[in-house]
Amino acid sequence: MTAVLRLTVFLLILANLLFFAWAQGYFGQPVHPDAWRLEQQLSPEQIRVVARAPAAAKNDEGRAVGRRNGEEEVCRQWNEVTNADADQIERVLAEEFAAFRASRKTSAEVSGYWVFVPPLANRDEANRKAAELEQLGAQEFFVVTGGPNQMAISLGTYRTEAAANTRLEALRALGVKSARVGERKGKPVNTLEIRGPEAQFEALRQTLAGLLPKLADPVICAAGSENKP
Question: For the purposes of burial, counting CB atoms within 10 Å of the CB of 177, is it exposed (0-12), middle (13-18) or buried (19 or more)?
Fold first, then answer.
């Protein structure tokens, strides 16, 4: 038993010595357990850039031009376009240049002011109101017979709001309480913006010039519009 015990103790000591030598790196392994991982990392100084992303394309005034489906895209707009011309441009895009997209904004500028009695229920009511105005001493008025203000009574049109208010005050001094001042809208105008392939824009421009010779050339879209989806 004594010999067996001695052999067991010797083997345990030998195993401990071998484990210590391996842990210290005497058998070719790193001293620290994380050192091997560090050696496997890429060295930053060895990284080399082989290509750069292409710079954004620029339009003729230096602003970035968007891209769609891999193609360079332009953005142009017409200002103060009539309804008829805007309709024609949109028709050409739909029929011949489907790759272009259009967006339209319509507005009507104030062309002046008018003093008026709001529309009455029918012609008889309008006639009775006209007779009342005449009795009060109001002059230069007429019943509107068409449009959205049909059966209103116009008491004068003016270029400025101040002039319209002066007329209103004079009417109220006569006892006309139902009159008021309102804006007179001019013809509607449109801002039409288009976006599409730069390669096709010149063909589109020439087509529109042939159909609408009085149409002004479009301008580059306002800053911030080029990259809208």
Answer: exposed
- C-alpha–C-alpha distance, residues 115 and 182, integer Å: 6
The answer to whether the beta carbons of residues 162 and 133 sit under 8 Å apart is no
Q: Please state the rounded mean pLDDT for residues 83-105.
A: 93
Q: Is 70 helix (H, G, I), strand (E, B) or coil?
A: coil
Domain of residue 163, residue span? 109-185
| Assigned domain for 15 exists | no
pTM score: 0.43
Residues 46-75 pLDDT 10s: 545 444 444 444 544 434 356 666 679 999
Q: Residue 115 and residue 179: Cα distance in Å, rounded?
A: 7
Number of structural domains (the chain) is: 2
Pairing of strands 101-117, 71-81: unpaired
CATH, residue 170:
3.30.70
Instruction: Please name the residue that has the structure tokens 């008021």.
Output: 180
Please name every residue paired with 106 in a beta bridge, in sequence order, or none if there are none: 190
Going by the DSSP 8-state scheme, the letter that residue 225 receives in this structure is: -
Q: Which CATH number does the domain housing residue 86 bear? A: 3.30.70.2750
Q: How confident is the model at residue 89, as a pLDDT?
A: 94
Q: How far apart are CA 154 and CA 19, in angstroms?
A: 109
**Do both 73 and 176 map to the same domain?**
no
| pLDDT tens sequence across 2-18 | 666 677 777 777 777 77
| Most distant pair of Cα atoms in the chain: their distance | 144
Asked whether residue 25 is assigned to any structural domain, the reply reads no
